[in-house]
Amino acid sequence: MLELTGLTAGYHGGTVLHSLDLSVPAGTVHAVVGHNGAGKTTLVHTVAGLMRPSAGTVTLDGHEVTGRPAHRIARAGIGLVPQGRRVFAGLTVDEHLRLSYRPPHRGDTTRPSVWTPARVLELLPRLGERRGNRGTDLSGGEQQMLALARALLGSPRVLLLDEPTEGLAPVLVRQVNELVTTLAAEGIAVLLVSPSPAQAVESARALTVLTSGRMTLRMTGEEARADATSLHAALELTATAV
Amino acid sequence: MDLLDAHLIPAVDGVAFGLLLFVVAAGLSLAFGTAGVLNLSHGTLYAIGAYTGAELSDGTWGGLALGLAAGTAAACVAGAGLSAATAPLARRGHLAQALLTFGLALIGGDLLIQFFGADELPVRVPEALDSSVTLLGHRYPAYRLCFIVMAVLLAAFGTWVLTRTRMGAAVRAAADDPQMLAATGHSPRAVHTGVLAAAGALAGAAGVLGAPIIGPGPGTSETVLMLSLVVVVLGGLRSLWATFFAAVAVGEVQTLGVSVAPDLAPYLLFAAMAAVLVLRSRFAEPATAHGPEGPAPDPVARLRSHLAARLRRRPRGAAGSGAAAEAPGAVEAREASEGDRIVIAPRTGRSLLPAWTGRLPGGAAWRQAAPLLVLLVVLIALPALLDAYSISLAGSALALGLLAVSVTILTGYAGLPTLGQTAPFAVGAYATANLADAGWTVGPVQIVLSALAAAVFSAVVGPAVIRARGTTVLMITLAIGELTGAVVNQLKSVTGGADGLVGFPATRALWGGEGMLEESELYNYALVVAVVAVAVTLLVLRSPAGKLLTGTRGAEARMRASGHPVGRYLLVAHVCAGALAGVGGSLMVTVQQYLSPADVGFEIAAFALLAVVIGGTTSVIGALLGAGLIVATRDWVAGSWPGHGPLLLGVLFVATVYVLPRGLAGLRSGGSGGGSGPSRDASRAEDQPPPAPLSAPAGKVSP
Questions:
Q1: CB A71 to CB B294 under 8 A?
Q2: What CATH number was assigned to the domain covering residues A2-86+157-241?
Q3: Do A100 and B293 touch (CB under 8 A)?
Q4: CB distance B70 to B56 below 8 Å
Q5: What is the pTM of this model?
Q6: What are the extents of the domains in chain B?
Q7: Which tens digits make up the pLDDT trace of A101-152?
């Protein structure tokens, strides 16, 4: 369970994210939708510890992790699949897997599920065929799988997905969406950030629309699936407002 | 066969020397490539090992083992300390690191001399190895052969760790994307500390084992630093194998080269370095931000990608339309210029001549000029306040100040951080000395001719400098400075060689006057020349010409995309800065009345650059004050504590880095604004996380 309360963050004096409250229960997907510049990536980076929030808290299963360095947050169980994948250029797929594999401490039974390289390769078989290739030799879809594998190997409680389908072919988009559902079913809390409402509507239990760093709409997935008008209206509105 | 036979011993020596350099340079390369630390105190880490090893060596195996353990541990701890010291500078770029590590090197060097004495320490190798073996009919020291084996083992172990272990993968990942490394649960900070500690340990171990080859003495750190910088530059940061071959090549140049071609040897090293850098910056692939990779990438793949890059590049058009051919830069520029307005003066023709339009409103102009005016008043009053010795020091400081201002033009405005302005400085200095010797003693004539000579020199070497960016410029200009130094030492008929020049007629301030001999006379002459030179510089920098340079530094791609012939601007700036340095050199000769190679050596080049960093990179007055501060610390304050000039300077540098993050210029109104230049852009440009800084800037280079 990931909980954000009053989360505020920004760069060099300018606030980008304004007092956001949000919670993602284990085993569910929460989608955050917004246009470019709405503060989506800032949100993800702040939760992952790559940025320090100026106010508010990030709580993971009841333990506050606000303001901790990124590697501690990662060890606490927040996995990040960043925008643009950011795989390591000089490392092979195998080295990515070895480097990222961090089994939970003995006695830590609270993780939704434990991921080993073998299990990850079972889920993402394509990576198994490219084990000797360097990160930058992979196709966009393969890089996305590698970025996902990297996050999973920390056996995360929470998965942050920042525009995971950006630049992928439609067939791969569907595959990613299926994966998201599968991982949520494993008990992982997924925070999915996307500019397109379509992907969000498909798998999310709850939706948040972010406009200029502020929440402008929150609805459940069922509501959105039943009638997406208000969701689209919120996004249309933001388009003219921004 | 005879030839081969005669050079066998130097050739094997070259291998030993090269392997020693490889172990040291690998650490330097690792620290730079993966932790992003430009460590100018790396030679000191070697010296720590060498001194420790020499002190503990007693001709037994136990002594060697103890020395190895202690020297490695000491240098390892020093490396970790360095990591802690550089951590606060993470966002401040390489110049701040250079200032800090150079300061630490000065302090460390002084402390080592305090502790171990100023003489070279004798080194005793274990008795079993203190003999010679027969190698193809020649006697050869057994220790060196043993050293070759140990160095190979050390190198193999290091390579194995870096390329085959999880730790090595973490190091390479940290070089590539530290944030993502953190997101996988590894602390990039810990990796950086580990890398610097390991680099220190490598240098320390090399120092202990290599002490019989490059022994511990006062010059050790500088020799080792220079040679390993050359190795790193030649080898690039991409592969350990390239570093290895570069190290052996440098070793052979230093041994075999000296034995085969003694006359050429002084030039070979830096000529090779300059050639490699220039070629690399000319034919570099577009920046693909590859991290330093463990093993060399498949040579075929490399050749293929190189060819592909060459094919992608279309033939060069006219300067204006050439921008369209640089696909990556141009696209980036177009995207960028859509968003924000470019604050650059419109294209004002092709000349960089000052147009008198850069005036500021009255009040602001006064406020801006106030520090300069105060400085001027103080400088005019100095002769009445100081004794003769201090006045002559002040004269030298003015000369060095002009050198520093010329470095500011290049570093702060043109974005070409330089360690080579001592070259035009030397040209100006030797021109003036020779003119005086030939009877041309009128000051203005000397100044103008020296400036011309220096300008011609800068125009000749300029094309090699202006194509590169960032740290590559530092290295190219370092090579130019060192080559000039080698010429100065070799060309005895013109320069007097290592003895220098002395006894030439004194300069006359104007036609018909007497030769100036009094310190205050000389000082006043220097002051007038300096004021004129600085005034002209300021006017040019404030004019649209200065803005064009600022624009080039801050957003080169945008400038190109808007049709500016950036290369020409930089060349003109380089020539003008050279002329200014020439004026400084001329002044120095006039004030000092003698000239030695040390006056135009690496130390002066480093001081000029550091004066600029102390001053705040883009501030002319800051550079002048920085130069004054350095001369005062080295010669005046240290006068009351003889022999500790380097220590005091080191403390000055280290203190400046931490206390004045934006240099002396940052003191003024606490702001970076005003007309003092592109300091914000400057810091940002330096900030770019450097995955492979030596090779990355090459991508910005025009084809």
A1: no
A2: 3.40.50.300
A3: no
A4: yes
A5: 0.80
A6: 2-262, 369-601
A7: 998 888 788 888 899 999 999 999 999 999 999 988 999 899 999 999 999 9
